[in-house]
Design a protein that fits this description.
Layout: H1 6-18, E1 26-34, H2 38-49, E2 54-58, H3 84-97, H4 108-115, H5 122-127, H6 140-154, E3 158-160, E4 164-170, E5 173-179, E6 184-192, H7 198-202
Parallel strand pairs: 1-2, 1-6, 2-3
Antiparallel strand pairs: 4-5, 5-6
Helix pairs in contact: 2-6, 3-6
Length: 248
């Protein structure tokens, strides 16, 4: 009978040790964002701006969700309604395509001639200030590159192939989430920024599929509406708890 291979036995022992909960990789932050979608990137940036530490755990291999996955034509009517971190993204898109090197398959002039007036004009990309020019269509790899830059500048790490396996709660509060590779994320707050809502479901949160009835929350503008020019309500909607008071 052959003597067991010492290296094989050692390898099996090491693998067994790596699966031990005591040896699992633990990542801690103020905020853990499950899902590296565009919403997840924006949440991470905002957390960093507020002086909090954040980490992104993405089940797949890419940042940006639909925006970097092929949905490169933004369906937007009144572009002036878009601000904040979202507008920063579109400004960076414009800044990228202001460079001649960005145009590999057609010229800038050819592209804008086909698009008509729905985009910022080709000359605007070259002459307007970087905070003014925006562009609303883009290539998927460009979107992902910009999302990566935004996270890097915010100092937020992103970990990929992080598929949720279980959660741990202290009472009603979510304390940590565990991935199928054994990695543990602990945070004071969690955000489910995926499209599927697996973390929300695992945590046992209630949720609603579709639109609630108007009477549920005393709303009058929710649901499908026949008259929404440029995708906007025809009446002003104040976003503040106390109307007109940004501090609220």
């Amino acid at each position: 009978m052959k003597t067991p291979n010492l290296f094989v036995l050692t390898g099996l022992l090491i693998c067994g040790l790596n699966l031990s909960p005591a040896d699992a990789k633990v990542i801690e932050a103020d905020l853990c964002i499950y899902g590296g979608t565009s919403a997840g990137v924006a949440a991470a940036m905002q957390a960093a701006r507020m002086g909090k530490t954040a980490v992104v755990a993405e089940p797949g291999q890419h940042l940006g969700g639909l925006s970097s996955g092929g949905l490169g034509a933004t369906d937007i009517g009144n572009k002036a309604a878009i601000g904040g971190i979202s507008r920063t993204f579109y400004a960076r898109i414009a800044r990228h395509y202001a460079a001649d090197a960005a145009w590999k398959f057609e010229t800038r002039e050819e592209y804008f001639r086909k698009r008509g007036g729905s985009q910022v004009q080709a000359t605007d990309l070259q002459t307007a200030g970087s905070t003014q020019a925006t562009m609303w269509t883009f290539e998927p790899h460009v979107a992902e590159m910009i999302f990566q830059q935004m996270l890097r500048e915010a100092g937020v790490p992103a970990h990929f192939e992080q598929r949720l396996a279980s959660v741990k709660k202290n009472g009603a509060r979510l304390a940590e989430i565990v991935m199928d590779n054994g990695t543990v994320y602990r945070a004071r707050m969690f955000i489910d920024a995926t499209y599927e809502g697996d973390l929300m479901a695992r945590a046992g949160l209630s949720f609603t599929v579709g639109r609630e009835a108007n009477a549920r929350y005393g709303e009058t503008l929710n649901g499908g509406r026949a008259q929404t020019p440029y995708h906007q309500f025809t009446v002003p909607v104040d976003p503040y708890v106390k109307p007109g008071e940004p501090a609220s």
